[in-house]
Each structure stands twice: as structure tokens, then as C-alpha cells.
Amino acid sequence: MSAEATNPEAHPEARPELRRRGRTRLDLRRLGRAALLGPTSRDRLPDAIGHVAEAHRAHHPDADLSILRRAYLLAETSHRGQMRKSGEPYITHPLAVTLILAELGAETTTLTASLLHDTVEDTDVTLDQVRAEFGDEVCFIVDGVTKVEKIDYGAAAEPETFRKMLVATGNDVRVMSIKLADRLHNMRTLGVMRPEKQARIAKVTRDVLIPLAERLGVQALKTELEDLVFAILHPEEYESTRALIAAHAGERDPLPAIADSVRGVLRDAGIAAEVQVRPRHFVSVHRIARTRGELRGSDFGRILVLVGENADCYAVLGEMHTCFTPVISEFKDFIATPKFNLYQSLHTAVATPEGYVAEVIVRTRQMHRVAEAGVVALGNPYATATPDAAATDPDEERVDPTRPGWLSRLLDWQQSAPDPDTFWTVLRAELAQDREITVFRDDGSATGTISLPAGASCIDAAYAQHGEAAHGCIGARVNGRLTSLSSPLSDGDTVQLLLAQDASSGPAAEWLDHARTPAARIAISSWLEAHPDRAMATTSAARAPLSVVGARGGGGNAVADLPDATVRLAGCCTPVPPDAVAGFLVRGGAVTVHRIHCAAVAQMRAVGRTSVAVHWRATADCRVTLLAESFGRPHLLADLTEAIAREGVEVVSATVEPPVEQRVRHSYTLQLPDAAGLPALMRAMRDVPGVYDVSRV
Q: CB–CB of 94/114 below 8 Å?
């Protein structure tokens, strides 16, 4: 346990007068920065549980501290005689983990479980003892952390380790909170291990735990973990960044003066606000240096403005943009549209008369708590549950009102991952997604929402809503418009997914090119592997259009005022009674008949074709060509032909084009016994499942 984590006098935030002004007792970023900038002397371990209690009371003034002291006594006696590789008593580890969580504002149950999180794994203490002494809730969390810790962290075991970690997190998000704090303290003391083991642990932390901390909104842990990983995996870049920060420390920092100007502006406007200068952490400075090149003094930190209410945030923004020159391209409103990890703030940047550009973050104090501590700041998400909810069934998943959509998706698809390697690969890809969208579903009976990663398509929405039943999806309507399944979705879209009635329908291989979510990709791949013949059929080369030709007639019941002339109904517009028509003499002495509004009529007149008067016979029969557009599925041609036959209509010819993105076009030339039956015929064809439009050619 580092001296920085146990010595409150080392940080001005620990002073009571500052705590009364609403500041956090200890700044975890500053602790991490102090640890990175250089070692400190190891002093005698102070009354650490006293510091945990003090930190806890700062966030929860009415908390019962007796349970923490009892947990400390059990942990200290159980771990007595055990030592860490660093040479410190083992009890320093659970104490350090608990202090980290206490500073983030974790509630009493989480801190109690944190003190005991290694007792069941590393000592003779049993879960029954924990339950008898501290209750079902603490026992549930300790059991979840223990299940995660029991797995070997060898390279081959890592996928299964994190699979179990996700399941434990899904049952109680506080399990992951303890795990993240546990990894942070281990990373702080990683120097006692061999370099190759340091690198391996740092890579796992980078690939999975840091993204999980980001997803859970625990920025205070995430940024320090980033810096510690940066120092291990990229020592040269880290040293150059460290030198850059050290050089800046000896120069004049313009940010305090800018902060004073902001305070004056807000004071004159009558807005009660607290203005702070927030130094960037190492990785942030490194990223800024790579994108901006040479850094100026204002690039090493940001201005943080804390206010009381949401409306005050926008009032501050108005004053900032009025009294300073705003950099509009830097403005982002995460209050109106929060990030998927609960984060809310206004981001902007302003230019000063001296030429500095300062980034400004505006948020309420509650937003600040959530921005720093994420789910840890939400307290006990199961407080409304029955007291013995955890004991009813340890393996049953509990309902968590704070569970983010991405976590639910992970819990769903991890059960279907066919092997650890697939799970590990897909997990890292899923965690790399840094944005999330919400779409509204409209299935005709109920309307709800679906959370998806940015870039997701209708295919992803289908599997998120229908699971394996999405294999039979034949199309979608997005915001009321028909679209292909490959169409990407945007935040706020309304999606209606169309499923085939045929249970044998299955996905096409090209769906994998447009699926972004692990659940969709795993389900599609599994189906294609189970149906290799169908998979080959969907990926075969495009076929020529299928044509079915019957006896062809000529002009139907159209008559030209030209003796012995052959009359033909134009295929471009397929006129039928009682359409207004026009006839033109073409090569061979034939007369072609067009609907009067057909584009070909103007062309015929333009090239000087002889116009011939035509009229309809008194008979009611007619010939027409219809175009049916549909989503591809088995037996579609047979169903359409049957619907046409039920209307008593003869098929003269039919052409089926090869499917494109699951869409198929059917052209039918039909002989109707009565032209008045055409509207009913078109309705009958539209009623065939999968058909979304029928029109005259």
C-alpha cells in the first residue's frame, strides 16, 4: 500500500475546511500521479481502517461504521502472518482496495465486502461464516469476487476468467467495482514482479479492465490504470511524456489566471459555481501531444466548473461563450445526450485575449460524482429488493435497475460463444466500441427500445429483439420506410422487423458483412455451420433471371383504326381497359398501344411516328404486366403463383430476377378475364408474406 493512499496530510483535499466546501477528500488522480512521478518512503502503516471510516463518512455521514470495524478485525486476524510479494503485511491490500472505493463514495455493504474479498479465497474463513456475521448481501458480493479470483491468470485461462467476471458483474455490479479497485492497487505495486509478468498483466488490464472501467463510468480508476499501463508497456513514450510534464511544471501556467477570469465572469453574472483547474493525466497529455504537436501551457489541463442545477450548466455556457471567444467545433452536449456509461457534462473551449485556448467542462456536483465514480456513486442498486433476495438462489440473475445495455448484451452473447478464443476476440472488439445508440422498436403490439453499438445495422436489431427467431428476418422498415437488412441504424430510429412465416428460413452468408454485435455474428455463424448446403446456396454466383413463358397473345382487346394492322400492347406501360391510350405505327406495319401518359408517347411523337387511333373492344378481358417486389424466402414464387390462380387469372409469362440483398423482383404478364378485377388481384399479391409492393410496369 503506497504512502500516498494512507497519508491524508499529503493532500490538501484531506483538510476538513476544504471538505466542508464540497470537495472530495482524496484525489485518486493525484495519488496516481504522485506514484508515477517518483517513489516515496514507506512509513509505518497508520490506522488505515480509521482513514477508511473517515473517507466513508465524508460521502455517507450517517453510515454505521461498526460493521466496517468488525470486517477489518476478521480480515486482519484471518490474513495475519500472510505477506505480499512486496514484503508488506497482506492486510494492506484489502485495506488499500477498500480505501479506494471509500474515496469514490461506495456504500457500506461494498466496503464491507471489499475488506473481506480475499478471506474466503486465501484464509480459513467460509462463506457461511461471512453470511452469519455480515448478512446475505455481503456474502453474495464476496462469493462473486471469490469466483472471479479462483481462476488461474495464465494466458490460456484469461478468456474463461473474464467470462466468469462478466457473469459475476451481471449478478451484482459491485463485484466489478471491487475487482477494478483490486486491479488498481495491484498495478500500483506491480514493480516487485518480473518484467514479463508485468507486461502480461498490463496487457490484460489495457484490453479488458480499462474498457470495463470506462463502460462502468469509473473514470477515476480508469485514468490511473491507463497511466500505470502506459508506464509498463510504453516506457519510452512514458518517459518523454513525464519529461514534458516536468518541464511544464517549471513554466508559467496560464490556466489558473484563466480560471480566475472565469470565476469573475460567473460571479458578475450571479451564478454560484466552483471553478477548478484539472491537470491532464499522462496518457491524455501523450494523446494531445500526438495530435497537436508542440504543446502550450493551456494544453496540460482543463477548467472544471461545478454548479448546483442542470439549468446552471447552460447559464455558465452562455456566459462563457459571451465573454470569451468560443471554439464552436469543441462544443459537445453530454447532458442532453448522456454517454452510455452515465457520463453527463457540457464540453466547450474558449480562446483568451493572450491567444491561449482552454478546454472547459461544466457539470453539476452530482454529475461530477457520477463522472468520477460511475456505478460506484449509485449506491446499492438492490436496496429495494427483499432482504433475502440474494439467498433465494445464488445462481439466479438478479434484476439490476442500473445495469447498462452493453452489459446485458455481453451477458446474453457470452452464453452462445462457441469457444474461449471466440469469446476473447469478440469481447475485446465489443469493449472497443466507444459509442452506443438507442433505437425504438415497433412490432405492431408494443413499443420499446433496443440499445446497440454505434454502426449497428437492422440485422443487429433483429437478433437483439428476436434472438434466433431473427434467422427468418426478411426485411425491415426504418422510420416507416422499407429498407434492406444491411442498412445502418442511427440514434433514435424506429425499427419494424419483418419475419418470414416459413420456419425453414435462414440467414444469408453476406449478413456477416453487416452484423456488428457479437450476438448477431455468433448466431449467424452457428446457423451457417449447421446448414452448410444452405450457406453455399446463399453465396453462389448470381443466376440469370428465371423466366416462365406461356402462350403469348398480341393486342389483347385493343383495336386500331387501321385495317389488317397487327396490334401490340406496349410492355413498358401495359395498358388495360379503361386506360386512355394512344397508338403508333412501327416497323412491319404493326401498331403499338401505350397508355397516354407513358414516357414512350412523347418519344414516338418526337421521332415522327405515325399516330393511329385505337380503342378498346367491348369484351372485359385484358392483359397486364405486374411487378411484384418482395423479400426473398423459400416458396415465394409458388405462393405468388397460387395467389394469382385463386383470382382466376392466367399467367402468360413470368420472370424472376436473382435476389439482391434479400430482395427479389417478379415480373408477371397476366391475362385477366375482367379488367375490373385488377385492383383485387394486386391486393391479393400484396397479401403474400414477404411481398411489400405490387405495381404495374
A: yes
Residue percentage of the chain with pLDDT more than 70: 75
Beta-carbon-side half-sphere exposure of residue 591 (alpha carbons within 13 Å) = 23
**Does the active-site annotation cover 491?**
no
Query: How many residues are present in the chain?
Result: 697
pLDDT in tens, 228-240: 999 999 999 999 9
- The total of other beta-carbon atoms located within 10 Å of residue 159's CB is 20
Q: Which of 13, 76, 88, 121 is catalytic?
A: 121
Among 485, 426, 433, which Cα is nearest to 457's?
485
Q: Give how far Cα 697 sits from Cα of 561, 624, 665, Å.
A: 26, 8, 12
- The pTM is what? 0.62
Distance (Å, whole) CA 178 – CA 185: 11
What element of type H or E holds 631? strand 622-631
Instruction: Considering the candidates 122, 133, 160, 621, report the single residue annotated as catalytic.
Output: 122
Q: Is 228 helix (H, G, I), strand (E, B) or coil?
A: helix
Catalytic status, residue 121: yes
| 295 touches 287 (CB < 8 A) | no
* Amino acid symbol at 590: A
Q: Check residues 192 and 103 and name the one with the higher pLDDT.
A: 103
- Quote the CA–CA distance of 302 and 579 in Å, as a whole number: 73
Cβ distance 489 to 461 under 8 Å?
A: yes
Instruction: Retrieve residue 389's grid coordinates.
Output: 433476495
> What is the phi-psi region of residue 569: left when phi exceeds 0, alpha when psi lies from -120 to 50, beta otherwise?
beta
Q: Given the C-alpha cell 422510420, which residue does it identify?
A: 479
Check whether the bond before 578 is cis (ω within 30° of 0): yes
Separation between Cα atoms, residue 226 and residue 62, nearest integer Å: 34
